[in-house]
Specification:
Layout lengths: L1 H6 L4 E6 L5 E5 H19 L6 E4 L4 H13 L3 E4 L7 H15 L3 E4 L1 H14 L7 E3 L6 H5 L15 E4 L9 E4 L1 H15 L7 E3 L6 H14 L3 E4 L1 H6 L2 H10 L3 E4 L1 H10 L15 E4 L6 H11 L9 E3 L1 E2 L6 E4 L8 E5 H7 L11 E5 L3 E2 L4 E5 L13 E6 L11 H8 L11 E10 L2 E7 L4 E3 L2 E3 L1 H11 L3 E12 L6 E9 L7 H15 L6 E5 L14 H10 L4 E5 L4
Parallel strand pairs: 1-10, 3-4, 3-5, 5-6, 9-10, 11-12, 12-13, 26-27
Antiparallel strand pairs: 1-2, 7-8, 14-15, 15-18, 16-17, 19-20, 20-21, 21-22, 23-24, 25-26, 27-28
Helix pairs in contact: 2-3, 7-8, 11-12, 15-16
Length: 570
């Protein structure tokens, strides 16, 4: 930050779009001044102790000042979604888990959030609750004026950032990232994305998670390119505002998870394309969830009249434990997918071309590992390295791999120090499944989410896709397919939980029947139970991923907001 402020002080560092799409900007010099003021206040409040600080800010410039203020103060920053007053029961339990895990001395926020947090903390974590410090609303003129304060070098024993995992398959864990890992991954992103002096970003991603934080905030700073940001809430309310932002500011780099492209296609009307110019886009990354070729094809076709180039799509793979980016392709080369026979893939874990008449799965390649990165596909049981076309767990070794999980030595050892059967390592066990073809990675799903029925492996995402493509009465990206066992060692049985579209109760039986039929016809497995639940009640992470493990727990505990179910009970 100080280097940018010294070299190009007046250049726009970040631009943020409000709900009405008006913009506020901040230069490198202005942000540097605010970050230094925050750092001084942090050190004064803690007596110079460098303990993790929880950041609770709405997306915007205050968040940036708090984040970089922690970096200047040498205090591990812990970004988290601020509590949502309309959904406290959904957002506060995660915050409570993070606060308890980090044992923080401070919660940093703005005045509009501070009152809520103080009241909640007083009733939730007495008496050893962290104080709430307002760091940006009322910075004194004297603090801002003193922009020459020198801060001690970061403590090498402390992480710069605790990046809490999304919790899509377990409770969230704090990934410990140092400045070395952050800078290494920013350099990998810059090289992989082909960032150049004329590049600029345009993103709506949550700034509390790896894709939005590392890719959308830290990489632009490290490379010196401007980026325009908007709130993820604003995107969900008006998806086309994202594309208007890209058009308005001529962004060359943008991207999002797969669902965002589907959402834009569904919402776009012909009138939305009038005046929209996406011709400046050189790279459109897609990751964080399974990448679908049909989604990219539909988006490219729908927005081609606005100048969007299909070859700008950039499928990639990454995870918080590797800071962010692990594999990717080359800019402006588009995507590559392979059609493999479904039965050998699911029964034997082998990817081979389909013969005439065989059911197929189309899988998108997510590029190759970069320099100094070793990527293996490993049998998760025997730790034997597998060959091309064999499905196994993805293992990584890279300078970007984190040091471990905060205060979880056993889980850290299990995840970050894996060794192959012949003793090579250490490697990061990603928990993701995939295979290599000619060196390119093809992710297939999550190891912990696998559903095994009659000896066949089924990935929940395939079951959910079959449901959402065939049944109009359910909300897209708001369902969970998971397996249960009636007793230990018994065969797994498939359960579907889906949020229903707002419809009359008499229509629910037809939706239940349609879900069962879709899975039977497309996937070929019986459904043990189907549950329709109220909108916005399927558990998700703060980044929008369905938490199948938690939906399963709610199902078994009878805690779902049930509208209808099959088979009926009572």
């Amino acid at each position: 930050m100080s280097e940018r402020a010294g070299q190009v002080p007046e250049n726009v560092a970040y631009r943020f779009l409000a709900e009405d799409e008006t913009a506020v900007e901040i230069s490198y010099a202005e942000l540097d001044l605010r970050a230094r003021a925050v750092a001084a206040r942090l050190l004064a409040a803690t007596g110079g102790r460098r303990r993790p600080a929880l950041l609770l800010f709405a997306p915007g410039l205050d968040y940036l000042a708090g984040l970089f203020g922690c970096f200047y103060a040498g205090m591990p920053a812990v970004p988290a979604f601020p509590p949502d007053p309309t959904r406290l029961n959904r957002t506060l339990p995660r915050l409570a888990a993070i606060i308890e895990d980090i044992d923080s001395e401070l919660v940093l926020t703005t005045s509009d959030i501070a009152a809520l947090m103080r009241d909640w903390l007083a009733g939730t974590l007495p008496p050893a609750r962290p104080p709430v410090l307002v760091t940006t609303d009322d910075l004194a003129a004297a603090e801002l004026a003193d922009g020459t304060t020198e801060f001690a070098a970061p403590d090498a024993e402390l992480p710069a950032l605790l990046q809490y995992t999304s919790g899509s398959t377990s409770l969230p864990r704090g990934v410990m990232l140092g400045h070395t890992q952050l800078l290494d991954n920013c350099a990998r992103i810059a090289e992989g994305f082909g960032i150049h002096p004329g590049s600029s970003g345009g993103l709506w991603l949550p700034p509390y998670h790896d894709m939005g934080l590392i890719g959308g905030i830290l990489t632009p700073l490290a490379t010196g390119i401007p980026v325009t940001l908007m709130s993820p809430v604003a995107f969900l309310r008006r998806p086309l505002a994202w594309l208007r932002m890209v058009s308005r500011y001529g962004a060359t780099i943008t991207g999002a998870p797969n669902f965002a492209y589907d959402l834009c296609v569904r919402r776009a009307k012909d009138a939305d394309l009038v005046g929209l110019d996406l011709s400046t886009v050189e790279l459109t990354f897609t990751g964080a969830e399974p990448v679908r070729a049909d989604t990219m094809a539909r988006f490219a076709e729908r927005f081609a009249p606005a100048g969007f180039r299909a070859e700008s799509f950039y499928p990639c793979y990454g995870l918080a434990e590797a800071t962010l980016l692990a594999t990717g392709g080359k800019p402006l080369t588009g995507w590559r997918s392979v059609s493999v026979a479904r039965d050998p893939l699911e029964l034997a874990g082998t990817a081979r071309p389909a013969e005439d008449g065989e059911p197929v799965r189309e899988l998108v390649g997510c590029g190759r590992a970069g320099a100094d990165t070793e990527l293996l596909i490993v049998d998760p049981q025997s730790a034997r390295e597998l060959g091309d076309g064999e499905v196994g767990e993805i293992w990584l070794a890279s300078p970007s791999v984190a040091a471990g999980y905060w205060r979880r030595p056993e889980q850290s050892a299990e995840t970050f120090t894996a060794r192959t059967e012949d003793g090579r390592g250490p490697y990061l066990r990603t928990g993701d499944l995939g295979f290599l073809l000619d060196g390119e990675l093809h992710p297939t799903g999550r190891l912990k989410d696998l559903i095994v029925i009659n000896g066949r492996n089924h990935h929940p995402v395939d079951i959910e896709r079959a449901c959402e493509s065939a049944v109009p009465g359910v909300r897209r990206n708001c369902g969970a397919a998971f397996a249960i066992e009636d007793e230990p060692g018994a065969a797994e049985r498939l359960v579907l939980v889906y949020e229903a579209e707002p419809t009359a109760a008499e229509e629910h039986p037809a939706v239940l029947d349609a879900l069962r039929a879709a899975v039977s016809l497309e996937i070929g497995v019986p459904v043990h139970a189907v549950v329709l639940v109220e909108p916005r009640s399927v558990p998700k992470t703060s980044s929008g991923k369905v938490q199948r493990w938690l939906a399963r727990r709610h199902y078994l505990a009878g805690e779902l907001a049930v509208l209808a179910r099959w088979p009926a009970v009572g």
